[in-house]
User: What shape does this take?
Amino acid sequence: MSVEGVVVKPVVRGAAFCMAHVPGMVLSGSKPRREITHNTNGLKQQIVSNLRSFADAVAYPPHQVMIGNLTPEALSKIERPWHQHPIPNAAAEGPGGRFIDEATFYAWMARGDCARLLRFNEFLPGALETALAANANGAKIQKIDKTALADAIANGAEPFFMGSSDPVGVFLPAHEEDESLMAPVLMENAAAKVTGAIALTDLLKKYNDPPVDHLLGCGEEAVGDRYQRGGGNLAKAMGEMVQGNIAGGTDVKSFCAGGIHAMLLGAALIASGMHRRVVVVAGGSLPKLGMKFQGHLQAGYPILEDVVVGVAIDLAADDHVSPIIRLDCSAFHRLGQGSAAHQMAGALSAGPLYAQNLRLSDVDRYAVELHNPDITEPAGSGNVPLNNYQILAAIAAQKGEIQREQMPEFVAAHGIQGFSPTQGHIASAVPYLPHAIAGLTSGNMNRVQFVAKASLFLGRMTGASDGASLLIERNPALTQTQKGV
Amino acid sequence: MIDLKDKLVLCLGERDGIAAPALQACVESAGAEVIYAETQCFV
Amino acid sequence: MDLEEQGNISRLVASGQHDRMVAILGTPNPASTRMVAMTLRDGDPSYAGPLAGIPLGLPVYHVLEDQVKQRIDPDVYEYEVGPMEFVLDRDGIINALQFVREAKAA
Assistant: This one.
């Protein structure tokens, strides 16, 4: 398909991130939860005493990059570990998104509790009472006493916390014998729903025209009951939380690559003329909180995986300003292309570029999995984005674009400092969107490639991996305007 | 040099290094039998 | 190493033919290589998992080591490992394994 053959050019106008700082929920993360069960020797207390305050999370330099107040380039000039170099007077809101604190998050959970499964402690911290009054949007807050809370927990309810050792509330199971409706599963899905819904709300405040025709969900949660465990359409559930009668939705699944798959499908819906505007939405991953807490404790770091992140990405028909999504220069990983990292990079990065007579060096920046290395390195997982950039550089060398000794220069020129919380599909390329859009409109960039990979094998149904990539390009109308044509 | 022929191999791959299917293909080409292959993903 | 994976390996090794078993790693860096190699040879260094205090004594190699590479069909190696050989910190990974082997011998 050539760009000339497409009736409508799809563009990406913006992205909004919701950074929910929820240290109390770290105890509900999969890894801490399992480890605390195995180890009764003060581990829970050790975790609680190494959690961050809201102010610390906001001032954390990589988080400031997430909400667009700091560039990745500026981050790479700050000495690591970054938690030791907080940004003075950091704002909780920026052009790429905003933070919400734990009390506001719980209030949104109450607001989204359509099945009435939340019960709050009769005695709540003042901050939570205030947040409930301000953000629960009229939802009835059901409170129970300490004995009833303990009974609920003994019967499968999942507690949630705010600092102190007593839970501020519980999430009830929805069915006694249904593993898909167990309380921890429901709480995980609800956390994803509200973080996605907040991001969507914020995005719609920023861009209210034209009306949204469709929502594409791209998270990794399984929403359903025992008869359809992953039935889904969390996108529609997120849409329901937004004021007004907006579009319906569909979920797109491919582990961490869901976001890029959804952007491509949304762009294709626009290019086909079927829709004028599609919003890609995803909530964050509660189970990934505290995943690498052991490494952080060992390194003497605070527990850095304490945010659940939602995102909403705005796709629309050509507005003659925003970057064009080049559908003719995109890729879905095919069976038989190989799952190894270098095979993926060949198929997803070099493949579509070379097919359009572009070289790897013609792309200004590559947005890969942008995991913050301060989170991954203490746990022995290395610097994930750097690893990806070295592979791209190696392929550029293999193709003769550069000499092998020029690989470090290629990495420095085309790579991006990792800054994203380790939230799977959220960390996969999309956190660079606000920066890329700025660079391709008011900045001096021309092309950015977004690449995401997916570890399908984790679900045990295949040994394969997956991935997808897309190229976004400076809008030609913008270039002509700038040239005074 | 190790001899992989007729060895029972546990392939412990990692997504950001070399994944288990690649390790498996390699050691099978050396005449080993793979009895365990798992790829870890820490992100 | 994940607790579940430790459990799987522990059961597999206990099921017999220990003498024929070899572990081949594809870990991405020296730190993870050292962690996994130590766990397989000497038991879980964090004393948290099923292999805590259980030295399996499995021979452990990394696929980037020459002594492994030389046994593998060169075409297969090129296709499956290819440029990863110079993308990953090969020297660091080999040093990490050397460290674990010498610590064991000492």
Q: What stands out?
A: The first strand of chain B starts at residue 8 and ends at 14. Chain B touches chain A through eleven residues (CB under 8 Å).
